[in-house]
Amino acid sequence: MNAERQHVPKGNGMTPTEFDRFENIGGLETHYLDYPGPEPAIVLLHGLSANANEFGGLIEAGLSKRHRVIAPDLRGRGKSGKPDLGYSMGQHAADVIGLLDHLGLDRVVMGGHSFGALLTIYLAANFPERVIKAIVIDAAIVFHPDVVDLLKPSLARLARVLPSSDAYMIEMRAAPHVTGFWNDAIEGYFRAELHENADGTVQSLTSANAVEQALRGVQTEPWADLVARVEHPVLLLNASGSYGPPGSPALVPPEHAIMTAESFRNCRYVPVPGNHMTMVFGENATVVTREIEQFLANGAGSTNE
Q1: Homologous superfamily of the 3-147+206-298 domain (CATH)
Q2: pTM beyond 0.85
């Protein structure tokens, strides 16, 4: 890759690393992280309002020691382009396939968290020849009836303008879904989404418009039919911790996750510690990484409850 393409746009609060890449792919300025390692490559797709750095905990836990790991900022999020329209599952899938083509990757292990997990299912169903195995991290084809309300504390950050990056970090650290859980990787994830305005204030790089359209797009897909079409081995990891203040429910209830796992032809269901977000950081990320490595080494057995 040409060195001049490896840049971070002005206003971003993080300096570039050797893993940051920027390319125009299919007309979309695309940012992705590319951690070198043995094949097959693992492509990890982030959550609804997240960014590629949400998988920093898995990288710290050693996932890239055994596999090349590629994590893009999906359109409208992070440092990737933010067109006004084009946030259907089909368009997101086309973006991912375009990235694979750009990188010369015929087949990969496809994985994702939350929205990215649903996109993984969509890709496995519609582009089966490009997927070796699928990793579904905390998603189900039956949505919690209060999912919009449960997501509000996280999505509210997209509209906030705060006086500094430190003030932003203080607010994120106090968010109910991360209270009492903080480390360098989770701070790096939040810093990766920061945009610094001319007056020194900061706000999220992620487009609220993109997130709103993507959420609507998720709700229009025939998920049961898509799952039934997936023939690949699937690993479904489910976090049962409270997503919010003490007493809050899990964002993906175990009964919904188990039902989803049983709907696949070949899926292993594994409960893991943490909540919908903290499951991919700290010691929880070590558990998730271990389960992924075991799955890739041994495949998926029958559904486990």
Answers
A1: Alpha/Beta hydrolase fold, catalytic domain (3.40.50.1820)
A2: yes
